[in-house]
Amino acid sequence: MKFWKIITKNFPSLLLALALAVAVWISAVIDEDPTEQRIFPSSVMIEVVGQDPSLLLMGDVPTQITLTLNAPESVWSRLTNQPQTIRALIDLSGLEAGSFEVPVQVQVDERPVEIVSYSPSTILVTLEPFASKEIAVRLLQSGDVATGFQAESPTWTPNSVTISGPESVVNQVNEVRATLDLNRTSQDIERVLSLKAVNTEGVEVKNVEITPKEVQASITVTQRGGYRNVVVKVVASGQVASGYRVTNISVFPPTITVFSYDPTLVDELPGYVDTAALDLTGASEDQDLKLPLNLPPGVAVVGDQTVSVQVGVDPIEGSLTLSDMPVTVVGLSEGLKATVSPEVVDVIISGPLPVLDGLLANDVRVVINMQGEEAGTYQRVPVVEFTNTDSTQLRVESILPGSIEIDISLFTP
Prior knowledge:
Layout: H1 2-32, E1 35-39, E2 44-49, E3 55-58, E4 64-72, H2 73-81, E5 86-91, E6 98-103, E7 105-108, E8 114-119, E9 122-142, E10 149-151, E11 155-157, E12 160-166, H3 167-170, E13 175-181, E14 189-194, E15 196-198, E16 209-211, E17 214-219, E18 221-223, E19 227-233, E20 236-237, E21 244-252, E22 255-259, H4 263-267, E23 272-275, E24 278-279, E25 287-294, E26 300-301, E27 306-315, E28 319-330, E29 336-341, E30 344-350, H5 353-357, E31 364-369, E32 376-380, E33 383-386, E34 395-400, E35 404-410
Parallel strand pairs: 2-5, 9-13, 19-23, 20-24, 28-31
Antiparallel strand pairs: 1-4, 2-4, 3-9, 4-8, 5-7, 6-9, 9-12, 10-18, 11-17, 12-16, 13-15, 14-17, 19-22, 21-27, 22-26, 23-25, 25-27, 28-30, 29-35, 30-34, 31-33, 32-35
């Protein structure tokens, strides 16, 4: 009984002593591990949970929050080293199509931590139903084929694709189109084209998925009747100045398109047309000039009426022009024959004068290899072969014309 009286009498003093001890302990802990309030230094990404898979989240939804915490220094150290212990999320469970203000929930696994503030605290979300539909692909053509050519109707595959995405966006799509560029082409086209979804005004609709994303398009390009591509042959005359040599004669374009209202006139052309005479008399430097073309009556050039001719003239070493060298076709398959146009070419060869002086016409052969080719009309670049002489010292500077038309047909006994 006396013990309890002593306890009762001194109880206030005991409580005060206990409170003072706790205060001293708390003060010591705080001094050693002080609490700090600051902004979390790493980005806290916002997770979306509970979203109905048949709905799509629309608009620009914030992806991260700015977070201010109050925590001891030791806890700050752990949070900084393990930022994954902090989560921010919005829960869309049970939400249907529409717009909603959804609170951001922040979870911190470390303790003790006080969440002081974070921004944004709520997010406006809009949910839309997912939609898809099949739609035909439209192929547009841009540009024009080369003059004298015509394009057949194009084909493409697949002819239809599936578009998918938010219902309101899918409903804006009027057509899916691809564009095929024909600009100045003279050959058949095989091309893979990207697709684009557009609305009724032709403006591209974004945020829709096109499956597949590309189509394979093709178009056949043929030459019109009355038009023909022929080789340009430069007709050179005269001799350059003494002590100089012609190193190269080139023409641009090397082939041109000619036209006649009478198709037989262009069909009768030999596969080439001559330029006006190129007079090289006394030339001692490079030449760059325009030359007209010699065309038969009733035949006209499509486009520019002249061609650019460049002549390279250098001080000699030595050069030799072999005129009217026959063109030989090799490599033809059995049962085929070849007709070349022109049948002869001029070959300009350079090298040491002693070698050139000993060069005979039968030491030089102009050949075109047509191995593996079938019946048809081709344009090929001839090759010069040397026989019975040291060809390592000789250079073929130019072959006129630089391209030959070869007509391969079946041999008829």
